[in-house]
Amino acid sequence: MMMELENLKYPIGRFSPQPSYSESDIRTNIQIISALPSKFINLLGNWNAEKLNTVYRPDGWTVRQVVHHVADSHMNAYTRFRLALTEENPVIKPYEEALWAELPDAKTAPIDLSTQLIRYIHLRWVLLLNSMNAADMARTYTHPEAGKVFRLDEVIAQYAWHSEHHYQQVFHLAARNNWQA
């Protein structure tokens, strides 16, 4: 049962950073980030409220909360990149994602608000990511809760994983319930 819950939580496994990232790794990760909005829109396009209010795992978030979480998370990521590219190793502002997911808008707002937000944030973010050179990739920010300095090439990998991680949570729910169109 414990392994089954772990697979529901982490259908693609947990994020595991590499010691370094090649230009090819970075390009692949940017493509994964770029693809997420279309993948979510295509998967969730005609889901009704009942499906959107279904939890993807026991004691997990609803699909609606997952989509709103991705919008919140990726807005923060985009801002953190801009800070890291314009300041010397800035200390970023963490946020309580679990509490954000419990706010009324995360539990009730139509998902189009967040899928469109993800779409447009990703357009800007991917434009920024594709403009970065090797020196930019080596820039950093400090996450005070993690007590760690993160290089932007690693953060790109982490958000590629984050994109696919949450997409697969919802995709696997759809597969288990035969909800694919």
Give the total of beta strands. Answer: 2
What would you say the CATH architecture is? Up-down Bundle
- CA(first)-CA(last) distance: 30 Å
- Report the uncertain regions: none
CATH superfamily: dinb family like domain
Main sheet, how many strands, which sense, barrel? 2 strands, antiparallel
Number of domains: 1
What is the molecular shape?
globular
Radius of gyration: 17 Å
One letter per element, helices H and strands E, the order comes to HHHHHHHHEEH
Strand content: under 5%
Number of helices: 9
Q: Would you tell me the structural class of the helices and strands? A: mainly alpha
Descriptive overview:
The structure is a single chain. The chain has helices at 2-9, 23-44, 49-52, 63-86, 97-100, 104-108, 111-131, 134-137, 152-176, and strands spanning 140-143, 148-151. It has 181 residues and is mainly alpha-helical. It has a single domain (36-176), classed as Up-down Bundle (Four Helix Bundle (Hemerythrin (Met), subunit A)). Strands 1-2 form a two-stranded antiparallel ribbon. A hairpin with a 4-residue loop joins strand 1 and strand 2 (148-151). Helix 2 (23-44) packs antiparallel against helix 7 (111-131). The longest helix has 25 residues, at 152-176. The protein is globular. The model has no long low-confidence stretch (mean pLDDT 96).
